[in-house]
Write a structure and sequence with these properties.
Elements (H helix, E strand, L loop, with lengths): L1 H94 L1 H25 L1
């Protein structure tokens, strides 16, 4: 009877040890799977973040390029307008030299008067 009791106790201990080992193995596999899944998700997130940064960088470069083109176009348009104004003025001075001198004298006198008034305030 003692032998049966000892055998039953040994079997119970072996079963408990086997069950504990199986539970530990299952827990270890589950933890490993969770870590692997988390690692894969982190890698995917890094990849998506890198792609988003690349897209933003490309957009920024495109906006800068378009801005530079628009600035160049505006500069060219202003240059043409100034040249046109200079041409019109030169033509007017050639056609109306006395009027041009009179207008220039009037503008000069008006400018001098404004400057004298401003000086008087100080």
């Amino acid at each position: 009877m003692e032998n049966n009791l000892q055998t039953s106790a040994d079997k119970l201990i072996d079963d408990a040890a086997s069950t504990t080992q199986e539970a530990a193995d299952k827990t270890l596999r589950t933890a490993s799977n969770v870590l692997e899944n988390a690692s894969e998700r982190l890698t995917a997130a890094r990849s998506r973040a890198g792609e988003a940064i690349d897209q933003l960088n490309q957009r920024a470069h495109e906006y800068a390029r378009v801005g530079m083109e628009k600035a160049g176009e505006t500069r060219d348009r202003a240059k043409r307008q100034v040249q046109h104004a200079a041409d019109v003025t030169s033509h007017y001075v050639e056609e109306q030299p006395l009027k041009s001198v009179a207008i220039a004298a009037g503008v000069g006198a008006l400018t001098a008067a404004v400057l004298l008034m401003l000086r008087g305030r100080d």
